[in-house]
């Protein structure tokens, strides 16, 4: 495979049909470090056709591979990911701008996802027997693969988000075409190579590198695609859903969030508790420069501790070490692109115009040896005295910007936390166990953390309420997205019904 042959169809690496290419930029210095094929609708049609043949191609097709063999292949992929952890972590850092350590952790989580879905399907029975009330009837509910899956992944966690789709799709017996983000495709390309090395048959895994308005749009509308799973922004997600509607294909959407981090005063009663809550608020908002769908970008803090909490939070945020993700001592990398940084800057400008008070950040940092002048860096930003009418509070910024709102009562805290069109994730910090359970139960978000932020488990479902999307990833429900349910009813002693007299 050359650097321009990054489209994988029917077991072969190839260039784009048009011959078009795209440079992949390192966001730390805006310099190209790779060139990939720029696919379009023609490449997409070829990939879908290959996936369709691999699904319907007789007894040797992937859906008819025994579950134990499919699970064993997924485990081999996990082992290969562990083997290549360092190289893949570094590649993820260069591609997406995150620190190398974040990249390594991502690879660990990818391996965990493959192992989880391997174990999940390997431990299943032959179906759910349904009691029909007669010994002459054998009735069973079974699960079968959906078919050809279109998997469209985002730029912030390229390999992790791909694994959340690819692992369950393969475990269930599907074939797929994956379209990674056109600006961060490198580790997904590498994963296809690992799938081939693990022994996946040709045509089961296909990748088309290219933009969303051509490759993604064609996948969503394609009549031979049976399911489209999309992770990304709300605007793009609604376009995917609309394009998929005429063919009535299954659709799964994870569309981000505007996630509240609710801090009660009793969570700060001791110096240790205060330090923990502030530290976790930093992690919630600024990991991967805030380019996280579940980022705790809305700090909702009890009024009695607001000033102390925000002052310390801003002090620590201003000391976060920004730089190239591969540099020693760097804690936070750049934004993924100039377009993304401009978007963040526009949100901060609008917030200041609407009355927000900056406590730190709000600008591009000065260049430094570990921070090239042409990199897409932006300082961690804390905006105080925010309110619900501000765009920066309502809309997903997807950058290192934390807004601060205050409350006085538990009911007010819950109302603020739920006052969003999204509903992906949220957290509550309190020393009161009863309050923790009450508030967690009332929050309309798909994941709720109590006295923590950001951890997830591959065995627990991930997804949101409202405009955060439809469907779930991970857990048993994440596998169910890639399956159709079939009821098989067998009459062991058939006889005439005599419904009609003639």
From TrEMBL:
Origin: domain of life: Bacteria
PROSITE patterns documented for this protein? ALDEHYDE_DEHYDR_CYS, ALDEHYDE_DEHYDR_GLU
The protein's name in its UniProt record: Betaine-aldehyde dehydrogenase
Keywords, comma-separated and alphabetical: NAD, Oxidoreductase
> So where's the catalytic machinery, residue-wise?
254
Q: In which pathway does it act?
A: Amine and polyamine biosynthesis; betaine biosynthesis via choline pathway; betaine from betaine aldehyde: step 1/1
Q: Which family does it belong to?
A: Belongs to the aldehyde dehydrogenase family.
Q: Which Pfam family, giving just one, matches this sequence? A: Aldedh
In its UniProt entry, the species of origin is given as Streptomyces spinoverrucosus
Domain Aldehyde dehydrogenase: residue ranges: 13-488
- Report the GO molecular function annotations: oxidoreductase activity, acting on the aldehyde or oxo group of donors, NAD or NADP as acceptor
